[in-house]
Design goal:
Blueprint (H helix, E strand, L loop, with lengths): L5 H9 L6 H13 L6 H8 L4 E6 L5 H16 L3 E6 L4 H13 L4 E5 L15 E4 L12 E6 L1 H14 L5 E6 L4 H16 L9 E4 L4 H14 L5 E4 L2 H13 L9 E6 L2 H5 L5 E5 L1 H16 L8 E4 L1 E4 L5
Parallel strand pairs: 1-2, 1-3, 3-4, 4-5, 5-11, 6-7, 6-8, 8-9, 9-10
Antiparallel strand pairs: 10-12
Length: 322
């Protein structure tokens, strides 16, 4: 129909190889006239990969993850890649099943947000993978991986520093019992700030929670008050924990920030639009997403990857809780 070979048409459609401008215009005109759409299934059979990227997310109801997935999906779409979004609900077994499913789907790569710390990632041995937020504890083929995270240690440091500089000397830290890499690094920041300001602290003030949500923080702060633990600051490792702490204190008529000061982490809407806006550590979701998409495309297209460990800066947003 166009008077050129199938191979030439294929090169024009895929935008690679050599051909003249005249031939390109001729083929594209015929494609437009006949409303031709390339078969991605056929392409996948030929290349053994679909132009799909799997996105594994631990909790699609969490605003931080919602914003992150939205940014990633939009950027992938702009690069002609579709997304398969898999919500694990923080369940390791579900994670593993999704990994197997994505492998069976022949996805080009996986963006793995906050994976379970105890996953062995054997399904990812040869799969281009970008990890966000939590460093995997074991990998089989390190050159296939890229890691992206916020500067969690610095985040823990500046959150604690804010409380110390505002006069707090007994700071409760609400954190995740699982000791994921992001939480461990925030604890390191908390302890480093105490050391730099020559303020001693007791390990009992680092409080582990089974679930990282409003209810857990509310119940734990109420429990600490019932036990008579004296504290004048709360560093909550998510904004939902900060909100839970605030509501628990308000219920006991403990004034924030006059009697107890609070700093959260993430900078999602609940921190900004609470009755008393909460000071928090801002994570740069847009930069994390852009770095993730750039990295996964470099991996799947076999291009050089300059940085395999990427740490995105954080900063403090001061509001009325401190």
């Amino acid at each position: 129909m166009s008077g050129v070979s199938i191979a030439t048409v294929s090169r024009i459609i895929n935008g690679n190889g050599r051909y003249s401008k005249e031939t390109e215009e001729k083929v594209k005109a015929i494609i437009k006239e006949h409303h031709y759409v390339p078969s991605m299934v056929a392409k996948g059979l030929r290349t053994h990969r679909m132009d799909n990227i799997g996105i594994i997310v631990p909790d699609i109801t969490n605003e931080f993850f919602v914003k992150l997935v939205h940014e990633i999906e939009s950027s992938l779409f702009a690069s002609s890649y579709s997304s398969l979004i898999c919500n694990t609900n923080e369940n390791v077994e579900v994670e593993q099943k999704y990994l197997q499913m994505l492998k069976m789907q022949n996805v080009s790569g996986i963006i793995y947000i906050s994976g379970g710390y105890h996953s062995d990632y054997k399904e990812l041995a040869e799969m281009p993978t970008v990890f966000i937020d939590r460093v995997p504890n074991r990998t089989r083929n390190a050159e296939k991986f890229v890691m992206i995270e916020s500067d969690n240690r610095q985040g823990g440091y500046i959150a604690t520093r804010e409380l110390l500089e505002k006069g707090c000397r007994k700071i409760v830290m609400l954190t995740d019992r699982r000791r994921l890499s992001s939480q461990t690094e925030r604890i390191e920041g908390y302890t480093a700030a105490h050391a730099d300001y020559h303020v001693p602290f007791e390990e009992s003030y680092i409080v582990d929670l089974d679930t990282i949500d409003f209810k857990s923080a509310h119940e734990k702060i109420s429990e600490l008050l019932d036990e008579g633990l004296a504290f004048d600051g709360v560093f909550a490792t998510t904004d939902w924990l900060a909100l839970g702490a605030y509501v628990a204190l308000a219920a006991r008529r403990i004034r924030v920030p006059d009697q107890v000061k609070i700093v959260g982490f993430d900078d999602i809407s609940v921190s900004e639009f609470n009755a008393l806006p909460i000071t928090t550590v801002h994570q740069q979701v847009d930069i994390i997403a852009q770095t993730a998409v750039k990295s996964i495309l470099q991996l799947v297209q076999n291009k050089p990857v300059k940085n395999r460990m990427n740490v995105v800066p954080v900063y403090l947003v001061k509001r009325q809780s401190t």
